[in-house]
Amino acid sequence: MSALPLPVSSEPNDPVDRLTRRLKTKYAGRICAELTLPARPAQTAPLPAGLDERLLRALRARGIHELYAHQAEAWRLAGEGRHFVVVTPTASGKTLCYNLPVLQAVCNGQGKALYLFPTKALAQDQVAELLELNKAGELGVRAYTFDGDTPGDARKAVRTRGDIVVSNPDMLHQAILPHHTKWAQFFENLQYVVIDEMHTYRGVFGAHVANLIRRLKRILAFYGASPQFVFCSATIANPVELATRLLGEDVAAVTRSGAPQGERRLLLWNPPVINPDLGLRASARSQTNRIARLATRIGLKSIVFARSRLMVEVLTKYLKDVFDKDPRRPPRVFAYRGGYLPTQRRETERRLRDGSIDCVISTSALELGVDIGSLDVCVLNGYPGSIAATWQRLGRAGRRNRTSLGVLVAGSEPLDQYIVRNPDFFLGASPEHARIDPDQLLVLLDHVRCAAFELPFHADERFGSRHPLEQFLQYLGDEGVVHLEGDTWHWATDAYPANAVSLRSVAEGNFLVVDQDHDSRQVIAEVDFSSAPETIYPGAIYMLQAAPYQVESLDWDGRKAYVRPTRADYYTDAIVYTRLKILERFAERATAQARVAHGEVHLVRRFAGYKKIRYYTHENIGYGNINLPDQEMHTTAAWWEIRPGELERALPSRQMALDGFLGAAYAMHHVAALQMMSETSDLGRAVGDGDGKWFATQGANGRGQMRDVSGEEIAPDYQGAFRPAVFLYDNHPGGIGLSEPLYARQAEVVRGALELVERCDCRYGCPSCVGPVLASDEERGYSPRALAATVLGLFAAAADVAPRPA
Amino acid sequence: MNLAGRLDRLRGRPAEQTPDTLAHQLQRLDGRRTAKAVSPPRIDALARALQADVHGDSLLLREHAYALPGCQGDPPDLTMLPEVQGLRDPDWVYLDTETTGLSGGVGNLAFMVGVARYTDARTLSVRQYLLGSFAAEAVMLRELVDWVGRDAVLVSYNGKCFDLPLLDARCAMQRVADGLGRLRHLDLMYTVRRAYRRYWPDCRLQTAEKRLLDLHRAGDLPGSEAPAAWQAWLRRGSTAPLGGVLQHNFQDVASLALLHRDLLRDYAGRGEARVDHAAISRAWQQAGHESLACRVLEAAVAHLDEAGTLQLAALYRRCGEWARAEALWLQLHAAGSTLAASELSKYYEHRRRDYRRAIDFAAVCEPSERSTRCGRLQGKIGSNLPLPLGGGIAGSNTP
């Protein structure tokens, strides 16, 4: 938090320099681009006049004699009574931007503050920091966390005595707002609401949080309070827009960081081609492993980000095989990801801070502001899926006065390849927009219900949504949830609605992973509902700190998976079939050749079985069955079709059409994720007829297969009408507002995909354009890549026509 | 498609067969007109059905005198419970609510509140408020707070955790100043649980009625069905279920008063079996009433287990009644109690300064203190007597 401008140097013998030189000499061919962000000196401003004496003392005691420019700017906006959002890099002293005005207000006896962090762990870090300032200046400020761990007898003290209450959205939703009368005194005096890590409030979570803020504002109005809102965010393209949508009011911005920054190097790394015919490259995993090994050997502390929990475990195993062979010595390599129990994670965080870990392998879980001390090297195993997340993760290495190195290792996915081949796009691009749709119907309905419980709705009241509130209330009235009397809608049922609404998802209920080998049947992990069917089916290998467990049984209704440690030399990967049915078209545009539309769809995901894949060689050594109920979802999608006659002319056989559509879908999915600035997992793709009658998958022979409702393979030539379509759907129940902008940008998506396919270096198709193809494809007599290009060409023809309503 | 249809589909419900939108809207408007008509005719019908008066637009009030059965002789001293002991001439108000939900949170309200206070030592005046509409709530809360007054001592069953927080939350929502939470409050559930939890399967009010008052409700509407009864009134104007709730609530309030009187007996120590006399005694002791604490245990001495007897002995020791304490310890010791041996050893060492006897008891006392106690005593005796071997030696030395 020091505001002193620190000298920034990179000594000749700097180990980070040594590592960089070594990588560049040894692997010159693999480095596609290099970027150096120069060190930046501090820009400061004097401590503001009018600062409370005690606060001044506290700051001085902590070595703060001036402010960074952005902290001074935040102070000014706070003084003007405005809502504002602070967007500056990690470790730039962001928290002082809000702590300063808040502490000033508390010291003057003017009011109280509510801090919201997305997770409990971040909240606890924050209180620790406040307490240090408090102690340094003997401020007498009472800051408490209020979360699920707060004991019952302490809660009253938090409510009545807390000057600053630090909590999370889930607690506000389930415990605070539904009991707001207990908080009356706190709310009446509330002067600041601080919402940190704002960039995490996007997608479904963001839509929920926006509605939660609507509910909070209603309650605040009831108590006659109108506090200032302060948001803090990592870098995103649209911080002001996001804050404004979350709050529903105008928000000012502080975006220029005055904090110093050490020099930062970034290498874009493409694994070498190992099979030129198939365009196959060495895996990103092998490269990441190599770089992390080098860094650890040199004595640098590094963090490796992997894109999936599975990859975290695989990489951890490989690195532990090298560095933690001797069980008598303390481990040097650790894994960190969601699904580990909180105590395990806190322990890893603590070891990171005290420097006893040399290499940590993590999913996005460490992307947030969890304090993990300073690290030297960050290796990204694959493009994280968004530019904002990339910078956020790279920011975990390197603090203010040291050189740091980031290496982005490209995977074989189209996005990764696009980025390493067009480094200017990546290096020059602005980060993503964080999108939320606060008016997502199901989310809105959930929160109208919760809000009605908290205070009756007056008939002409508004809830900040674009949908007329009255229709929702009438809908809930028909269900007997609310009751209209005079001009007021009253809560009229015996439920506690917040319990039935989870802010993190549209679906319900986490699964517990239970180790049966322990006498006590210990819970070792949690898996969220939506990823359960593809990770903890009976037979699956579930990895935890690189130790494999086999799932023996799954209690679907009881939400438990029973596992046992195993010595298997393979891991498992689920095979998922998706079929879609169009329910309603919102809009479409069409030409003589093709048609593109968006609307509401119903999709069914079937978990057909799984593959067993051997470690190191990654060969497929067998299959198993998955016996799980199909997962159904209503959501929104955009889809592309070709008129039947046109399709027959362009692609003489149905088999060729299937291959072409599957390849096109693969390319479009990845380009769409890039264009939409969302993560690939937020979108799903499918090829089928839009009636749910059949869908296409890629079979073990690498060729497209047509399957019917029951999942049986059927012969394409013996079916009646044949109208394949590419679907890109919003991968959240009810949709989170991705399909509409996707439809609006469909021309860019199609053209981008066409470009990706046409300009690829491979011959027949590869994971970087239309998806993996097999060696036998040469014998097909046609190239999947050419087929995909044909399909995309026809889509492109429809892309530029004027839209018309459905 | 209209919003309702879309919501139904997203939530995976069979799409309702919606007629054309206009008809649908008309139907809605119609429904709304009915809903709005929570009007005098219906309220009057309800008032007639329940034999209640109407206050304001739609608050119903029923008032009954209730003569407590079996009240002969001098009225009992109702303050003789550890929680309220020492109160001077308290203004008891019995209170019980029926609510729209049982899950807590500000969205639930009390649609019925029963309160009662004594008009004389044998008669209660029972008042029951019933909301005929949501609008009546503020009126009810104001009248209730007024009627209860500022000096009442509330008596409830689980009111500390449920009824009072709920009423106070609703007072805050309706901006009725003060609420009731600041009043003194005797929650009989705690009084009951303390005395009987070890012996009863549960401590619900109706269990207490059966076991203490021998009261078996017939045809009573279960409390859990109360929310549905009020909803039936709101939505369909059904009056009958509310009659059942009114009866149920009346019985709850009456039971509070009966229970209050009945509990006095076990708390005064009448020596019944299947009562946790030790717990009652501890409560009296904490309330500063040591003689009662003793009396409760003395009356039950035949039923006391080791812990209870030790507790009584400890009370005697505190009052300096050493002989009585010793007698109890010896009795326990004879039955093999090592804890009693510890007490006896201390007694002989510090009180009687009879180290030899003390060491005899120390030899059979709690294993965890045996060696230190014996060692210290040997030091005091100042000789190298061999350690007694334990067993019944202490007893054989009795003069």
What do you see in this structure?
The complex is a heterodimer of chains A (806) and B (399). By secondary structure, chain A is an alpha/beta fold. Chain A has 5 domains: 18-39 and 261-428, 3-Layer(aba) Sandwich (Rossmann fold); 44-254, P-loop containing nucleotide triphosphate hydrolases (Rossmann fold), CATH 3.40.50; 441-500; 526-568, no CATH class; 577-805, no CATH class. Chain A has 24 helices and 36 strands. Chain A has a 7-stranded mixed beta sheet with strand order 1-11-18-17-14-16-15, sandwiched between helices. Chain A has a 7-stranded parallel beta sheet with strand order 6-7-5-8-9-4-10, with helices on both faces. In chain A, strands 27, 28, 29, 30, 31, 35 and 36 form a 7-stranded antiparallel beta sheet that branches. In chain A, strand 15 (333-336), helix 13 (342-353) and strand 16 (359-362) form a beta-alpha-beta unit. The model of chain A is unreliable at 1-10 (pLDDT under 50). Chain B has 3 domains: 42-266, Ribonuclease H-like superfamily/Ribonuclease H (Nucleotidyltransferase, domain 5), CATH 3.30.420; 269-319, no CATH class; 336-399, no CATH class. In chain B, 52% of the residues lie in helices and 13% in strands. Chain B has a 7-stranded mixed beta sheet with strand order 1-2-5-4-3-6-7, sandwiched between helices. In chain B, strand 6 (152-156), helix 5 (159-173) and strand 7 (184-187) form a beta-alpha-beta unit. The longest helix of chain B is centred in the middle third of the chain and has 29 residues, at 240-268. Chain B is elongated and about 100 Å long. Chain B starts with a helix and ends with a helix. Residues 15-40 and 389-399 of chain B have low confidence and may be disordered. Classes of the chains: A alpha/beta (806), B alpha/beta (399). Chains A and B meet through helix 17, helix 18, strand 20 and strand 21 of A and helix 1, helix 2, helix 5 and helix 8 of B.
